[in-house]
């Protein structure tokens, strides 16, 4: 098998009382999956190990993400923080296994926003926050032969929206003791659009505490 990977990472922070941080990362990867040779042929020297590399198998990955974070201490007891992020992920996976040769393409996008606040008293801390997140995933599968594309076997899009709220309280009267009480609520909404089989499309909504 083989794997080639290239990555780029950058981070920059600035500010004193009002602190900002920017993070960006990009990764690309290309990989191949092995064929399976008879062990006896390899041991006897009739087949080289490199003959196991199947160049029509494997796949590609492209991943990128960016975060912008803000944090500030308003006074000696109150801190706030907020972050915005975006993530992109694209993958292709070829699988050559006789009559079952196929390829799957996946494209995912995530957008999010979160904010937190924390207040500290002498022995008591109260914190809370909210996060909004949106995910969009597209997935398509096709027949393939040596990376030549054939008929589409599945094609669907899925969107998911998540809203989260939390509150947490801590009490530490002495260094050796701390009590924590927290509550979290999440709501999920999903929408699936199946282009290959419209009867499998639909939407749903639920929450969890």
Notes on the protein architecture:
The protein is 3% helix and 78% strand. It has one helix at 39-44, and strands at 2-14, 18-34, 53-73, 78-95, 102-120, 124-145, 148-174, 177-194, 202-208. The protein has a nine-stranded antiparallel β-sheet, with no helix packed on it.
What are the key terms here?
about 210 residues; mainly beta; 9-stranded antiparallel β-sheet; 9 strands; about 5% helix; elongated
Structural class computed from helices and strand pairing: mainly beta
What average pLDDT do the residues reach? 86
Q: What profile does the largest beta sheet have?
A: 9 strands, antiparallel
Distance between the termini: 45 Å
Could you name the ranges where pLDDT drops below 50 across 5 or more consecutive residues? none
So how many helices?
1
User: How many strand segments?
Assistant: 9
Helical proportion?
under 10%
Which SSEs are present, and which pair or pack?
Blueprint: E1 2-14, E2 18-34, H1 39-44, E3 53-73, E4 78-95, E5 102-120, E6 124-145, E7 148-174, E8 177-194, E9 202-208
Antiparallel strand pairs: 1-2, 2-3, 3-4, 4-5, 5-6, 6-7, 7-8, 8-9
Task: Summarize the structure in short.
By secondary structure, the chain is an all-beta fold. It contains 1 helix and 9 strands, in the order E-E-H-E-E-E-E-E-E-E.
């Amino acid at each position: 098998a083989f794997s080639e990977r290239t990555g780029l990472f950058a981070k920059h922070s600035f500010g004193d009382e009002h602190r900002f941080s920017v993070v960006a990362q990009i990764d690309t990867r290309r990989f191949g999956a092995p064929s399976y040779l008879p062990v006896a042929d390899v041991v006897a020297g009739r087949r080289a190990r490199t003959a196991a590399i199947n160049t029509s198998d494997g796949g590609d990955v492209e991943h990128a993400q960016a975060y912008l974070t803000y944090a500030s201490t308003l006074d000696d007891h109150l801190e706030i923080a907020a972050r915005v992020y975006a993530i992109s992920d694209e993958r292709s996976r070829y699988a050559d296994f006789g009559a079952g040769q196929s390829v799957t393409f996946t494209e995912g996008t995530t957008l999010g926003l979160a904010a937190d606040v924390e207040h500290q008293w002498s022995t008591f801390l109260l914190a809370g926050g909210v996060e909004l997140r949106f995910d969009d995933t597209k997935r398509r599968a096709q027949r393939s032969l040596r990376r030549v594309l054939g008929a589409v076997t599945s094609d669907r899009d899925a969107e998911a929206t998540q809203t989260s709220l939390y509150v947490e309280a801590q009490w530490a009267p002495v260094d050796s003791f701390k009590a924590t009480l927290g509550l979290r609520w999440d709501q999920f909404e999903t929408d699936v659009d199946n282009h290959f089989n419209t009867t499998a499309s639909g939407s749903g909504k639920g929450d969890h505490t």
